[in-house]
Fold each of these.
Amino acid sequence: MSRFFGKTGRSLVGALVLGAAAFLNAAPARAAGEAIVLPETRFSFEGLFGTYDRGSLQRGFQVYKEVCAACHAMRQLSYRNLLEIGLSEEQVRNIAAQFQVVDGPNDVGEMFERPARLSDRFRRPFPNENAARAANNGAYPPDLSVMTKARANGADYVHALLTGYSDPPEGFTLMEGMNYNRYFPGNQIAMPNVLNPDQVEYADGTAATVEQMARDVTTFLAWAAEPEAEQRRRMGVRIILFLIVLGGLTYAVKRKVWADVKGH
Ligand code: HEC
């Protein structure tokens, strides 16, 4: 290798290899004693050519709207963002109109409620944090806008969390109002198991198994946190293709230029 890269080249390659090894090894840090191993889930949006499956996104939004939105806000999203997951403007207008949002003040200085419009942010389920805590055994249901980026292996984690409820193992004492979950740090979570078979009736006829709903809502949350990921990946692939072509051309030119010199 040294013949090709020289001394600085060698240490550079060394650093790259070390960096890659560290990156591949980086397991999520856990505060609790024993490590929780997340099952890996294969999502359509992973990998170099990954895209968000539009059907899954729309089903995932349905799960968020009908289940999660009772407790979790997504304040980074406006209703008009739903146009990006392939819903028509009329569909999105109808969805928005199902929610009442606070507006105002009006002519006489009072706040009032009106149906949401495309430009409104997703309605939050509770007026403030205290109200949210009071309704959830003292725990605060966090905003889900960037949840998949806020946790290590976010998509795998959210999917695991939603499918990780069970009765506690023998000898495990649950605190009052808490639920056992295999993948939540500490294994006690204030959020109840919210996904049961056929919890929602999918508009496209897909069978609403717990696994399917967890996968779809995770896909929707991953898109919400990183809507530009597809575009960025497409650009990355183009840049790599460009570099390969450029590399080939440079090599050809180099050979041509040096051909005469070697001849002598
Ligand atoms: C009945 C209210 C309620 C519903 C419905 C609900 N959650 Fe939660 N969720 C909570 C509460 C409360 C917490 C905070 C839990 C804690 O800290 O113990 C939470 C926490 C979370 C977390 C963060 C876990 C962490 O690592 O901190 C995620 C992710 C989550 N919920 C996803 C969802 C999704 C997705 C749905 C819909 C399928 C949903 N929740 C539906 C109440 C709810």
Amino acid sequence: MEPAIEVKELTKVFGDFTAVDRVSFAVQPGEIFGFLGPNGSGKTTTIRMLLGILRPTSGMGRVLGSDIHTQAEAIRPQVGYTSQKFALYDELTMVENLDFYAGVYGVKERARRVAEVVELLGLTGREGERAGELSGGWRQRLALGVALTHRPRLLFLDEPTSGVDPQARRAFWDLIYDLVEAGTTVFVTTHYMDEAEYCGRLGVMYQGRLLALDTPDQLKQQILHGSIWEVAVTPLMSALTALSGVDGVLRVGLFGSRLRVVTKNLSHTAVSLQSALQGLGFGETAVAAAEPTLEDVFVTLVGK
Ligand SMILES: Nc1ncnc2c1ncn2[C@@H]1O[C@H](COP(=O)(O)OP(=O)(O)O)[C@@H](O)[C@H]1O
Ligand SMILES: [Mg+2]
């Protein structure tokens, strides 16, 4: 099957600054593909190139079979997009916003499709509320609805739940899963580590570069195998400071009444960490391997 998205060595340079640096990946139909990275890592710039809004400096890309350099106008009618600065009309109600955008996209049987989207997104009962008066969670949901009116096969969601409370975030992801089950492909960006866990595969972006790409579980296993530790030691705070200076230690944090330590791959064992602590004057210590998180993956990829 042809990939939904395919990019090779995609690059965007602004002046003398490289915002996206030779990024390559493919997204298969039906995937939830995540782009995880901090602000400024090149996520939005990548999406804008894939949508044909921004011209790549170099590299190639195809979206739903169309070339992003030469066939951008064929891409946009087939994809849905929610941007970070999505323009909802605050004075219009939910339904009026949906109807307006359905018109922009030339949706046939507009009223019926709007009713469907209302139902699909669980907006029933709120149809008459003005966009300007909605909470963050409902706004995001409406923005998703707007992006869905023309039944796109591929959705680009740029930080869709940024500023949304965790409960609304969870509900939003339930919706995403429903859409994927119905055959939609999703490309989603986030800087939330917990949210990244919901993606099928995940690209880790940093300073314009794609540092790693795999399922969340594989990323943890391959990148973090044997490098996350829980340390019981007293006194806790001075051990935290002391451990931060030990060779191969990338990060030390508090974890309940223990320390959670991320070490560089294969640089430490439980025994070597314990003897490092003893060498620093901490007597009673217990070190055990711990469950990795995506945040650990990120810290390890990026370094200290
Ligand atoms: N039009 C532009 N001109 C100059 N620099 C830009 C432009 N758009 C984005 N950038 C820069 O490119 C970098 C990546 O931005 P962006 O793709 O928005 O990152 P992200 O979405 O991961 O936060 C940032 O440093 C940003 O300031
Ligand atoms: Mg962005």
